[in-house]
Amino acid sequence: MTRVIEHGTWNLRPTDEGLHDPGPEQLWNESYYFDFAAPDGSIAGYVRLGIYPNWERAWYWAALVRPGEPLLLLADNDAPLPKPGTADVHAETYTATQQITDPFGPARITLNGNAAVLPDPAAADGDLAAAETMGLSFDLRWDTVGGVYPYKDIPRYEIPCTVTGLISAGGRKIPVNAHGERDHSWGERDWWKVSWLWTSGRLDDGTFVHGMQANIGVPLPWPCFAVPPDGEIEHRDGFSAETAFADGLPARSDLRFPGAPMTVTPVAFAPVTVTSPDGRPARFPRALCRFEAEDGRTGYGWTEWHQPPGWEDHGWTHLAGETA
Predict the structure, then answer these.
(1) Does domain 27-313 have CATH number 2.40.370.10?
(2) Of the candidates 33, 17, 96, which has an alpha carbon nearest to the alpha carbon of residue 302?
(3) Radius of gyration for the alpha carbons in the chain, expressed in angstroms and rounded
(4) Which of 18, 106, 278, 301 has the fewest beta carbons closer than 10 A?
């Protein structure tokens, strides 16, 4: 029997875990994200694969952050396209694989390669080829917690997870027992048009939270979700965020989750810069954050604040007394 997850204007099917036939747009993209954060925030990371078949390239990013230590970043925006029917990337300096054999169930990610060593994460905006490198490998598994969250109107879904496995950084073996989220979307993705905030974390009572706000110049009650301890995903509406910036980077964001307002503060950045086909840059600050709810709960997770050209005019709201 085919399992269909209904929410909004489209239905999510098990086959959607796989790859899709591309549309005609140059910037048609198939994107997978996998992130994780230890409960105490001592280690975190993420992987993103973005496939642009009509642009004849893939984007492959892998980051590892540990507060007080340099960022380890592999950011290849001219990666070879995976072989048809796979989501594996085989480049000259690294190999990355992705396996999702049970739709909406476990996902396994591996990476073997070298990452740039960046004591100052801002250096990610420059030429990573000149940076010192360190061996980095992932062998990690994401296991679903609480179900699947499909977006209402677009082909995209999120899955909260526990994350386990092993990382090797410079030959040092690091066991991982963390939480995180995985994300899959497909369709035209123009990174140089709209700014957004996306956030996902887990609080110390076991609650997962997720929210997203695109800055389209019109205030909307954006959808979000929460997973209570030992419970199922609860769909909610009414999410919004305000962010304070310092030197163009987010200093903190107030997240208005319905019934559970909280603040996120960046702990360790792992940013990427992307350039459009016509040469326009966009900055993508992504950070491990500490989550602090007004009711006293705390936790860790990831937040991103996408900054395309002219992002300051895209409808960002700023906390009182702060400037961009």
Answers:
(1) yes
(2) 33
(3) 18
(4) 278
To the question of pTM greater than 0.90 for the whole model, the response is: yes
Q: Please give, one letter per residue, the 3-state secondary structure of 77-120.
A: EEECCCCCCCCCEECCCEEEEEECCCCCCCEEEEEEEEEEEECC
Q: Using one digit for the tens of pLDDT, what is the confidence trace for 41-79?
A: 999 999 999 999 999 999 999 999 999 999 999 999 999
Q: How far apart are the first and last CA of the chain?
A: 52
pLDDT per residue over 79-102, tens digit each? 999 999 999 999 999 999 999 999
Gap between the Cα atoms of 188 and 312, Å rounded: 23
Structure tokens, 218? 């019109």
- Residue 70's contacts (CB-CB under 8 Å, 6 or more residues apart) are 117, 118, 119
Q: How far apart are the C-alpha atoms of 162 and 196, rounded to whole Å?
A: 26
Phi, psi of 225 (to 5 degrees): -150, 165
CA atoms of 241 and 316, how far apart (whole Å): 9
Return the domain boundaries, the chain. Answer: 27-313
* CA pair distance 101, 240, nearest whole angstrom: 35
